Amino acid sequence: MTILDGKKVSNDIKNEIKQQVDKMIAKGEKVPHLAAVIVGNDGASLTYVGSKVRACERVGFESTMVRMSNTTSEIELLDKIEELNQNDDIDGFIIQLPLPRQINTQKVLMAVDPSKDVDGFHPENFGKMALDMSTFIPATPFGILELLDRYGVETDGKHTVIIGRSHIVGRPMSILMGRKGFPGNSTVTLTHSHTKNITQITSQADIIISALGVPNFLKAEMVKDDAVIIDVGITRVEDENSPKGYVITGDVDFENVSKKASYITPVPGGVGPMTIAMLLKNTLLAREQRM
């Protein structure tokens, strides 16, 4: 069994990006600039955006955090997005989700200039991805592909089962794993909350990508020997024995499933670190496209 170490690979990617940024600086070129818009005071979102800012500092990017109050109106947010769209100093920006109830998330994501949509959520970029055209791939699916690539995990002709159909992970992964090329060329089954006999389906899978958000959902009896397990789930579970009062748990019963798997991602330290690394990679791509 091999651990797919997202922490190590993400550090490798950041080092590679820093080398490219150093070359830009040596040539007197403008370095990539990533902006993040956060509306409200959600603790998890603030922590996540903060880690993105620190990652930018590490690789030599410029970064801007735009904080807006929880009472921000949809019009005010759309005005801020248009301001970022028109700002030539900003190469890419993200809108941290979730947004407050008074704001239509889809309308907001549609307002982002596709050439600056480094999250890869705009329908134009999603459509290009589905058509195998060059575009920004959503950061978490991009990170999963990079892990499979760097560890040389065989995907050609394999049966990939995806658990969860979100627009952020499940649905794009179903497209990407079935595309021509590597990683890809697999036969994909997309499962969700209405799927019947899910154990029968997962037990036939060569690769399982779980993005459900239900702690320890995937049990050992649901997995065949030597399967590849990608755990995207990340949930805080109360634990009185933990100094923080909680532990971070994935969708996979790691202790038991890892005994059967050929490759498996840990939680934390698997897919999570890859998401930020690939966001940086998309921002570098955005900068290169604007040069």
Helices and strands, in N-to-C order?
Answer: EHEHEHEHHHEHEHEEEEHEH
How far do the termini sit from each other? 44 Å
CATH topology of the largest domain: Rossmann fold
Q: How many domains, in number, for the residues?
A: 2
| Backbone CA Rg | 19 Å
Secondary-structure content class? alpha/beta
DSSP, total strands:
11
CATH architecture grouping of the largest domain: 3-Layer(aba) Sandwich
The overall pLDDT average reads: 95
Helical residue percent? 25-40%
- Strand arrangement within the widest β-sheet reads 1-11-8-7-5-6
Number of helices: 10
Shape: globular
Query: Which regions have little confidence, pLDDT < 50, spanning 5+ residues?
Result: none
Largest sheet: 6 strands, parallel
